[in-house]
Structure formats: C-alpha cells, structure tokens
Amino acid sequence: KAGVTQTPRYLIKTRGQQVTLSCSPISGHRSVSWYQQTPGQGLQFLFEYFSETQRNKGNFPGRFSGRQFSNSRSEMNVSTLELGDSALYLCASSAELNSPLHFGNGTRLTVT
Amino acid sequence: AQSVTQLGSHVSVSEGALVLLRCNYSSSVPPYLFWYVQYPNQGLQLLLKYTSAATLVKGINGFEAEFKKSETSFHLTKPSAHMSDAAEYFCAVIQMDSSYKLIFGSGTRLLVRP
C-alpha cells in the first residue's frame, strides 16, 4: 500500500504570496490532518478533515485554510505569506478515530 | 485537556548502551499514547502505540514502552542503542473530542556515540 504522499517536497515563496500544498492519504483512509513543525513551536495541529468536513481546527489565523475532496485527497492553503510561516508542513492520514496517524514526508516551505 | 511532557531535549548514549527517553502525560481519561520517530528530512514514523490492551508495548526496531498510570508516564526504552537510532523522538497523546487531534511533546533528539 502506498504511503501518504505530499507535494511538493520543497517550496520557496516570497512574503505576501499564497501557497497551496497537496496531500494524498493512504488508500481507504478518510481522516486527513495537517501539522506545522517549526524549531521554536514544535509540532502544532492545523486542522483535520473527515469525509470532506473540517472536524477540528487549531489555533492558527484565518490565512491558513484547507479542504478535502471526495477521494479524501486534501489541500491546505496559506495566503499572504509571512516569514514566520516558514516550516515543515506535515500531512497525516488515519483509518478511523484513535488509530495511529500515518505521516507523509512533508513539504518544506521557505518564505523569503 | 490532554498534554505530554518530554524530559530532556537531547539525550546522548554510547552505541550498545540502554536508551531511555522520558514522557509524562496529563489526561483526565485513559489516554491513547504514541511514540513517533523522525529522521532528518522525513516525516514521522510510528514506533508504537498504547491503547490500554497491555501496559508493556513493543514497537519496531527493538523499542518498547511501559505505561505506568501511577506515575503518568510512558517512557521509551531500547536495551542496546544502534547508530541508526539517532533521530528525534516524539511522544504524543490523542486529544479526546469528536475529531482526531494529536498533542505532541516537544521532542527528544537522541545522539548515539560510536
């Protein structure tokens, strides 16, 4: 079974731009979550989707948004990028509630 | 709300020595606990999980963890460290609500000396 796939792996953007990151979950997994990882703040929860519905959202500004498609693939969007948005963005999928999360290799976003 | 605390941001051991990475949790209900490992430039890989079936949990790569309710701990151990174990390790607990949300500890970087 293929793992969680995130594209692109690396991205360089300029302040004020917007960016879209993509995540394909493991086949059959309906829950997709996004996490931001930075050296200073560690791993922080962004949001979780299940069957195209956002079930939970972390403490991030409205510039961070996401969606999930009917095939469970998910995208997250960050608008009006700031330098502090530079991070590793990790996507994870799960088969059901309380089963382990399976992570992708992440997208490394650098904002200059 | 659930939370986890990892003691020690860096742990250094010699190859062949015991590995002990500490994790304490805070939860008002029986927790679901996990240990993940992250190698450079990669995502997180599940090492093991505790779901109340057994207090001693065996994971991949020779790691195991023991759930101790009286100490609210879930420490990760490995009898003999290998150079390939050098990585960052994260303890995590599930936030108990209607969605799936993991609360991570701050991580412990394991260094293995030859």
Description of the molecule:
The complex is a heterodimer of chains A (112) and B (114). In chain A, strands 2, 4, 5, 6, 9, 10 and 11 form a 7-stranded mixed beta sheet that branches. Chain A has strands spanning 5-7, 10-13, 19-24, 31-38, 42-50, 53-57, 64-68, 74-78, 87-94, 102-103, 107-111. Chain A contains no helices and 11 strands. Chain A has 112 residues and is mostly beta strands. With 114 residues, chain B is mainly β. Chain B contains no helices and 11 strands. In chain B, a hairpin with a 5-residue loop joins β4 and β5. In chain B, 39% of the residues are buried. The chains are: A mainly beta (112), B mainly beta (114). At the A-B interface, β4, β5, β9 and β10 of A face β5 and β10 of B.
SSE arrangement of chain A, N to C:
EEEEEEEEEEE
Q: Count every beta strand of chain B, where a strand is a DSSP E run of 2 or more residues.
A: 11
What would you call the quaternary organization?
A: heterodimer
> What kind of sheet is the major sheet of chain A?
7 strands, mixed
Q: Count every helix of chain A, treating DSSP H or I runs of 4 or more residues as helices.
A: 0
Radius of gyration of chain B: 14 Å
Q: Largest interface, and how many residues on either side? A: A-B, 26 and 24 residues
Number of strands of chain A: 11
Q: Largest beta sheet of chain B, briefly?
A: 6 strands, mixed
Number of helices of chain B: 0
Please give the alpha-carbon distance between the first and last residues of chain A: 37 Å
Q: Secondary-structure element sequence of chain B? A: EEEEEEEEEEE
Q: Strand content of the residues of chain A, in percent?
A: over 45%
Q: List unreliable stretches of 5+ residues of chain B.
A: none
Helical percentage of chain B: under 10%
Mean pLDDT of chain B: 91
Q: What class would the helix/strand composition of chain B place it in?
A: mainly beta
